[in-house]
Amino acid sequence: MNVKQIQKFVLSYIEATGCQILEKSPNHITVKLSPDADRALTNRPFYWSFVDRCGVAPETMTYTWIFEKAPVPEAGIPSTPLTSLVTGGVRVAREEIYFGSRRLTQLFDAVRQAGRNVTMFEEPPRGHRDPLGSQPYTAWLGVNFKVGYECDMKREELYGWGISLATGVIDDKFYEGLKDKRLTPRLPANIHLLRNGLSLRKGLSQLENALERKIKTSDFGWAVEAENRRQEERNRINQYYGPLLERSTEDDEQKAVLQTRQKQREEEIDWQYRPRVAVSIVNCGIFHLPGID
Amino acid sequence: MHFPHLSPAGMPSGTSSEADPAPVTKDAFSAGQQLGTPGSDTPPRLVHPLVELKFNRTVFEELERRVERNGPWDDWQMYRLALEAEEANRVSDFHELQCTRLLPAFTPLPHQIETARKVMHEMRGRAILADEVGLGKTIEAGLVLKEYWVRGLVRKVLILVPASLVLQWVRELANKFDLPAVPQKKEYSWGSDIVVASMDTAKRDPHRQILLDNEFDMLIVDEAHKLKNKRTSNYKFINELRKKYCLLLTATPVQNDLSELYNLITLLKPGQLGAEGDFAANHVVDRRVPKNEAKLQESLGQVMIRNRRSDGGVEFTRRFVTNVPLHLSEEEMALYQGVTDYVRQHVKAESGDIASMLSMVTLQREVCSSRDAVFLTLVNLFKKTQEESPLRARIWELVELIRNIKSNTKGEKTIELLQAMGDEKAIIFTEYRQTQNYLLRFFNEHGIQAVPYRGGMNRGKKDWMMDLFRRRAQVMIATEAGGEGINLQFCRNIINFDLPWNPMRVEQRIGRVHRLGQKEDVNIYNLCTVGTIEEHIVHLLHEKINMFEMVIGELDEIVQRLDQEESWEHRLAKMVLEAADGEELRKRLDGLGDTLLEQRGKSKRGTKT
């Protein structure tokens, strides 16, 4: 993520949570958090439980987030007079936001928490609308999968797929397609929803199966290499413990200790090297789109 | 003791370690069977003979619940941002280092990045980092940790360091790497993701049991040479800990014995150097002399990285060394002569015993430092000597000589030096606690702010002293024990009030100040009393072997090679005691210096091949 992208991301978050922008320049932004954002970001559970219980008006925090260090202002030019005017002397925390900073990491976590499940409707096209007619809408299950290929190293892929709950058709560019559509959380007028042929569960299973087929065709060279490493490591510890165990045939206690140790090392090696694929769901939702497929 | 978030990242649940091929699950295409499976993880399916696939359905199950209850629904923009965040954090490639673009606070040096890369791709996250002092082992470990962290391969991390370094590690990880490390303070601290603790705490119950009951995605041990002995509780404890990736940091992987190295490597990768018997047979001639060196180097290279200053690529500021010759006052000289005579006689009386020999030489060295240092030793000696012994009277005479001394020549010279520095900070090293106390008093009388630093202080106090020195005091007075692990790059003046005899320890002192991050040239002052053994030692270290300007890596090696037969200190002590006069002592010391230079020549040739 470059500076521009980060800035855009943060601004979107501010907008989505209804925070109030007090000051803005290409390099920074000063923002008074909305209650929602404050709850998510400031880590003040006691304060918020106090507000909730006593019903007092909350006082949210104000931050200045710096995206790129501006050149040092020349002498004579006061640095940030405006902020202190607007905030009325409230303390403003200054933070740098860059990829990898704790604040941005926290923002990432906050949006993951706050953007898990949606139900959306595409707005019907404007204009030639038959006031008496009703447009048929199909429900889609849209799922954003994250596929992690893991051994002692890791690589990830994202898939934004969708399945029509009416027909079972799978669209592997589903999420991309949504980007161009105008979506609303409210049920539009003059539409009717088609009956679902598939349950949500069934829909998900079919998506998973399709994804599994795709994964199966991928290149598993990395896994073979990881497995070789794993075997190598196992041979190595066997070489080490083998002779030790032979020598300790008489001492049962000693032998048991060695065996435990060997087993532990083997488990560690498996833990470290065993190639595996883990698929998780970033978020998923139900999307009602015009059409009957 | 259970913590909610202790399950480490990536641990295959129900480790099917014994059965090699993963258990074949039901035909993946009869998907109907998955219906109604409780829990979030589907049973593993096989996507390749070697690879299991698991689906985690947590987020979907939440969708189902919300459908049932008809909401509440999340915001569409948040939904999109969540995916954007995921995309931004995605690890797109197995190999490329991700973390370097995430570190705005500093830029790692090329050798550090290369080390991190090697640790991950060639050593697969289990390695000994054995860089020479001052090249940034902590940074390298931080890079590796950050990279695994960013990739989500590591969540639960244990870092074991000497108590005095705990806060420094926490700070470094926070400031440079933005990693949420916490110092271990109470039992509940163990629940945090990245915990920095002292080895001594960790290996004690109840902590020990808590740690053994857990699994760590990554274990880092600093000053790992303390794990060289297989029979110690430290070693056993580390051996028992369950860990995936593991880094051992030490500047001196071999101190006395090749088997130390073998033990260290066995912690990481048992069998890397063959079975125990094999190692001795294949690689060891004498306990300190390796056999099949090329082959040993190759096996070592697979688990150990050692960067040297002499490899270049790292720029250090210059060192200026000044010897400050001093003439002891008449009274001080009288005491020195008195002690020297006593030592000579005494050694003749009970020749051969190394320990008592060393303590005799210590007396002489103490006189050169301060009367306070020698006073306590004399008093103790007096108490130990039997009442009827004629030596008692001799010792008491010496104590009487101390009474006559009214001033400390070295102390006064030090004040002169400090005044000449203006308001620049300086660190003063002495070997003796009594001298340290004396100097604190003495400086206080002269209105110079000074703080002490010594090994015996607890962690908090050490940190506090460092802080005081950084912010307020002009001077820090440190005893030898304080040498390990403190970083004082903000100071560029070192005064060696007295010198240790082992050049390695001198180098350690200098290394506190002259290290990466030091932006100024460094001044080193050696106080040296003319006509005493100190003069001879300074001559040996400074003029003969020129150690102050030597590249440090060489020194490690040379001293280690020489140490093989007899420890350096013993050798020097013997020479001092056996020499009839100054002339002869100097000759013999020159001889020692020559051997050392010879070794240096050898080791230079050795590294070239």
Automatic annotation (TrEMBL), chain A:
<dbReference type="InterPro" id="IPR024562">
    <property type="entry name" value="YqhG"/>
</dbReference>
<dbReference type="Pfam" id="PF11079">
    <property type="entry name" value="YqhG"/>
</dbReference>
<protein>
    <submittedName>
        <fullName>Uncharacterized protein</fullName>
    </submittedName>
</protein>
